[in-house]
Write a structure and sequence with these properties.
With 191 residues, the protein is α/β, with parallel strands linked by helices. It has a domain of 133 residues. It contains three helices and eight strands.
């Protein structure tokens, strides 16, 4: 594959017509509710079950810990291992979220470019930034935002561990790139 689109659920994604993306798409969590993606990544067992209950027939990548929870599902796949070993909490695959696991999965497919959509990292109003907040299997809209430090670190590790891939982070104007994201092949598209 030349290009892979990884579709996160940050609110910046609301303006994106995923159906207009012609290259391979990896969706995160409940994105399948709204768009037909080529595969799904979900590290929360409830979201995996929800996708199965709603007849999502394509591959669903999840943690190896959950494999035995879905013994009759032929479309369950185990996420690939991280491309490095570290000794920090944020290096433990259990502490990687769906989006960062999806970025790692995309990188293992050896594309030239990976486009990240809806990977907002930050909240504009200190409340949870997720297009599915307040819906089944998601936190209520009143919850505070999540500290993005793990996502920032883990995405940086993906950029570093796969240096031959061109990474494009799509965001709206005014979005601020984390200071630690200094990789040569990282492009921030503020359209």
């Amino acid at each position: 594959m030349k290009y892979i689109n990884v579709i996160g659920n940050g609110e910046s994604r609301l303006d994106l017509d995923v159906s207009s993306l012609v290259e391979y798409t990896i969706g995160c969590n409940a994105v399948y509710r709204d768009f037909d993606v080529d595969c799904l990544v979900a590290v929360d067992r409830r979201i995996v079950q929800e996708a199965l209950d709603n007849n999502f027939k394509k591959d669903i990548y999840t943690r190896s810990d959950w494999n035995s929870s879905f013994p009759f599902s032929s479309n369950i796949r185990i996420l690939p291992p991280l491309p490095y070993i570290g000794d920090r909490r944020e290096d433990d695959p259990w502490h990687w979220g769906t989006g960062t696991h999806a970025a790692n999965l995309a990188a293992t497919m050896d594309p030239e470019e990976i486009h990240l959509w809806g990977f907002d990292l930050y909240s504009k109003d200190q409340k949870i930034n997720n297009v599915y907040k307040g819906t089944k299997n998601y936190d209520p809209i009143t919850y505070d935002s999540i500290d993005p430090k793990l996502w920032i670190y883990q995405l940086r590790k993906c950029f570093e561990e796969y240096p031959n891939i061109r990474w494009i982070q799509h965001q709206k104007k005014g979005w601020i790139k984390p200071e630690s994201w200094t990789q040569r092949k990282l492009v921030i598209d503020l359209s």
